[in-house]
Structures are given as C-alpha cells and as structure tokens.
Amino acid sequence: MKSISRRFFAAGIAVVFCLGSGLALADSKKKEQSEEDMGFRKQSLYSEEKEKPDHGEYSKTEPGKSKRIERAFENSPPLIPHDLTGMLPVSETNNACLNCHMPEHAKALGATALPKSHFFDMETGKDLKGQLDNKRYPCMQCHVPQVNIPEPIKNTFKADFRSKKSKTSSGLLDTLNEGVK
Ligand code: HEC
Ligand code: HEC
C-alpha cells in the first residue's frame, strides 16, 4: 500500500515537471512585454520626466454659485464643488472652511452645515456639544475638489442609496449603529 502511493507521488511530480517546462517553452515564444506597454502612461516606468499627468482644472466657480455634486455613495464625504483660491492650505491658525460651514454660519450663506459626526469623538463616543472634533480640522484629508476629465478606465461602480435624501445629504452619526443595538 505504501509503495503504491509513493509511485503515484513520483508520477505526479513528473507530470507537473513536464507541464511546467512546456509552459515555460510556450512563454519564451511570446513577445516580451515592454515597459512602455505596461500601464496607461506608455512610458518607461523609471522616468517621470516626460510624464505630465492631466490634472484638469479645478472649479473656478465661487462658493454660493457652484452646484453640489451628488454623493459618490451613502455617507461618503461630499466632494467640493467650488473654487478654493485663497483658502488653502488649512493651517493651525486659519481654517477658512469653518467660516462658512460651521452650522451657525452655513444657513445664511447657503452652505451645507458640518454634520453631527464632526462634533463627536468617534473614538470615545463622546458628544463634544458643538465643539469641532480636532480630527476633523484638516478638511482636505477627506473632502476633495473635482475636475471634469475623461477617466482612463471607465468606472462602473453604482452606489445603492437607501433613500433619495441620502444622495444629497449625510447622516452617518444616526446610521452608524444601525443593526448593532
Ligand atoms: C465663502 C464661503 C465658503 C467657504 C470659505 C468654503 N465653502 Fe464649501 N461651500 C460653500 C457653499 C455656499 C456651498 C454650496 C455650493 C455652492 O453654493 O457653491 C459649499 C459646498 C461645499 C461642499 C459640498 C457640500 C454638499 O452638500 O455637497 C463641500 C464638501 C465643501 N463646500 C467643503 C469646503 C471646504 C473643505 C472648504 C475649505 C477649504 C470650504 N468648503 C470653504 C461655501 C463655502
Ligand atoms: C476624517 C474625514 C473627514 C474630515 C477630516 C472632515 N470630514 Fe466632512 N465629512 C466626512 C464624511 C465621511 C461625511 C459624510 C458622513 C457623515 O459624517 O455624516 C462628511 C460630511 C460633510 C458635510 C456634509 C454634511 C451634510 O449634512 O450633508 C460637510 C458640509 C462637511 N463634511 C464639511 C467638512 C469640513 C468643512 C471639514 C473641515 C472642517 C470636514 N468636513 C472634515 C469626512 C470628513
């Protein structure tokens, strides 16, 4: 019994070996893939010199006149639709975003108010009672402006929104524990 299984094992190794070398032969006949053919940039992978990424133009429409962009998926950080000239970088002593997006200013200016989640410490579960959580201070870490340029690969992602409202507004703090309690 033992010697039979050993023989099968040896035969198995031989078959794998033959298959392997056959594949290697077939491979060597194929044209080698050049580095320039890899990826979308059609350039050597070792040089950035000739590569000029197309960043497009960010919106030049001033806040108050731009059009909000539909959320990418439910409770995703909304994209910035307006011009940011003069507002960046957000620094330790200056955050222009807050001038318009703090709830007490937002309504009068037609801006979207910061949501409840930004006044809440997600780590400790503590309600900060209207004080901005420090981790939310660098807005650009999560919110980004958009440009209208053709995408190199078509994005086929389709978000499922559970309500019409969630396409245009956030409510993470209200839904975070759904199904948990
Ligand atoms: C002068 C006021 C003002 C300033 C400063 C400002 N915003 Fe806005 N923001 C608005 C208004 C008003 C809108 C609504 C769209 C519009 O009317 O242009 C808006 C829209 C947005 C939206 C989209 C909200 C949604 O519901 O889709 C985001 C995200 C945003 N701003 C982020 C920022 C960030 C980040 C900064 C700082 C770098 C900033 N804003 C600075 C007024 C402002
Ligand atoms: C750590 C990531 C993060 C940071 C930093 C952050 N946000 Fe958000 N923001 C989000 C996410 C995620 C949402 C949507 C889910 C939610 O929290 O309700 C959101 C939602 C929003 C909304 C939409 C509110 C609504 O009712 O629809 C506004 C406006 C906004 N943020 C502005 C800002 C501004 C201005 C700053 C900087 C002061 C900032 N955010 C910092 C992640 C972030």
What name is given to the CATH topology of the domain at 56-145? Flavocytochrome C3, Chain A, domain 2
Quickly give the structural class. mainly alpha
- Quaternary structure: single chain
Which ligands are bound? heme C
End-to-end gap: 59 Å
How many β strands by DSSP?
2
Q: What is the approximate shape?
A: globular
Strand arrangement across the biggest beta sheet:
1-2
- Strand-residue fraction? under 5%
Instruction: Give the name of the CATH superfamily of the domain at 56-145.
Output: Flavocytochrome C3, Chain A
How confident is the prediction overall: mean pLDDT?
A: 85
CATH class of the domain at 56-145: Mainly Alpha
Q: What does the largest sheet look like?
A: 2 strands, antiparallel
Residues in helix, %:
10-25%
Task: Report the C-alpha radius of gyration, rounded.
Answer: 27 Å
Order of helices and strands: HHHEEH
| Count of runs of 4 or more consecutive helical residues | 4
The second-level CATH architecture of the domain at 56-145 is Orthogonal Bundle
Taking pLDDT < 50 over at least 5 consecutive residues as the criterion, the unreliable ranges are none
